[in-house]
Amino acid sequence: MQTNVGLLGYGTVGAGVARIISLEDALLCQKVGWPLKLAKAVVRDLSGRRAFPAPPGLLTTDPSEVVANPDVQVVVEVMGGLEPARTLVLAALESGQHVVTANKALLAVHGREIFEKAAQSGREIFFEAAVAGAIPVIRTLKEGLAANRIQSVAGILNGTTNYILTAMSRGGATFEEALKEAQELGYAEADPTTDVEGADAAHKLILLTALAYGVLPALDDIRAEGITKLAPADFQFAEALGYVIKLLATAASNPEDGRLEVRLQPAMIPKGHLLAGVNGAMNAVMIRGHACGDIFLSGAGAGMMPTASAVVGDIVEIARLANSQSKLTKPSLGWQSLKAETVKPASDIWSRHYLRFSVHDRPGVLAAIAGALAAHNVSIAQVIQKEADPGTGQVYLVMLTHSAPVRSLKAALDDAASLEGSLGPARVIRVEEFREGR
């Protein structure tokens, strides 16, 4: 008996998967109970350079040698993108093959259709590598914490942005300088837009929300913001106030109204919190359950071998089922069906905020801004005002607010931006409190 595995894609992750299966065949056989064998790997170009040389005869340009091939029990999709990945994954499930994927964008955008197809076909789709690389957060939420009502999930889900923010925090670098460093070290792509604007982490957050709450929100339903607008001054003020700035993904059940809040934003995290100490290209997730309390997971969130580790872990798990022709009843997301619940609008979410205003050093400016906030019931908790720049007369005015709805804060800031002495819109960063019950 053996389990035949077909790869859709043989790039960085696909080559890592092939390397582990080829070099660790004895170990994997002990884990599964029988051998795993790479059958075929579908590529666009047979002549391309590979991070791990493909065995003779492994590569093909014909997806039919993998998808719907009765000799292949497990299809591993590591090609990325939405198409043809979506079509091939659906076809594999329809034909009775199990699927493993690392494609977070595919599942975030087309997850409902794909998970429904898996259920109809009685086959599994595993996706541990789609969120946080080698960290076993998917299996933890789906199985290990199945007895828990999840109160919150908070995570640092993108290594590129975390590296950039760490560099800005430690060395006073600008965003552009930190990004260049990340690119030179291989932590950021030549086009980093998906990472720095937050789309990559938002896709992962959608999947974590589905696992934790049985709700698969659309990307447009969550508040997603990247890191490109942050400046060195924000990190200096964060340090002085006792915070660290991270791109934080959160999904939480509000303890007051029970509504689901999902957002991805730069956030100020108290220095003593575990997530504040996650630096460089590392990822981390903190899960709070009603029975288990806080669970903290941290590790490598990307890279050839960490991601391949998660993919092969899924293959090992699914291989025990792959030779069975019986229908499976185990739901891919850990829920028998997805809920129709919608997430709370971002404008209705309450939070504390850091506000940095650039203003002229004139009498009455502080009072005017405070008045604009008060007019919309936004209360100020703390104020810092630095000396004016002698050349420009410009001064930074920093405020920490008490908790208020985003809707009220936005209205107050719109009013403040038009005040005499204001030099434009304020920089706004959420202050994460990690309250009990959240």
SSE blueprint:
Blueprint (H helix, E strand, L loop, with lengths): L2 E6 L3 H12 L1 H8 L3 E7 L16 E2 L13 E4 L7 H10 L3 E4 L2 H18 L3 E2 L10 H8 L5 E7 L2 H13 L3 H10 L8 H4 L2 H15 L9 E2 L7 H10 L1 E11 L6 E11 L11 E8 L3 E8 L3 H19 L27 E11 L4 H11 L4 E6 L8 E8 L2 E2 H12 L9 E5 L7
Parallel strand pairs: 1-2, 1-4, 2-3, 4-5, 5-6, 8-10, 10-17
Antiparallel strand pairs: 7-9, 7-11, 9-10, 11-12, 13-15, 13-16, 13-17, 14-15
Summarize the structure in words:
It is built from 13 helices and 17 strands. The chain has 438 residues and is α/β, with parallel strands linked by helices. The chain folds into three domains: 3-133 and 304-322, NAD(P)-binding Rossmann-like Domain (Rossmann fold), CATH 3.40.50; 138-300, Dihydrodipicolinate Reductase, domain 2; 349-431, ACT domain (Alpha-Beta Plaits). Strand 11 (282-289) and strand 12 form a beta hairpin. Helix 4 packs parallel to helix 9 (199-213). It starts with a strand and ends in a 7-residue tail after the last strand.
State the end-to-end CA separation.
Answer: 48 Å
Tertiary shape:
elongated
Largest sheet: 11 strands, mixed
Query: Gyration radius, to the nearest Å?
Result: 24 Å
Number of domains: 3
The averaged pLDDT comes out at: 93
Structural class, from helix and strand content?
alpha/beta
Q: What's the β-strand tally? A: 17
What's the helical proportion of residues?
Answer: 25-40%
The CATH topology of the largest domain comes to Dihydrodipicolinate Reductase, domain 2
Tell me the strand percentage band. Answer: 15-25%
Order of helices and strands: EHHEEEHEHEHEHHHHEHEEEEHEHEEEHE
Looking at this structure, what is the CATH superfamily of the largest domain?
Dihydrodipicolinate Reductase, domain 2
CATH architecture of the largest domain: 2-Layer Sandwich
Helical element count? Answer: 13
- Please mark out the parts with pLDDT under 50 across 5 or more consecutive residues, or reply none: none
Q: Quickly name the level 1 CATH class of the largest domain.
A: Alpha Beta
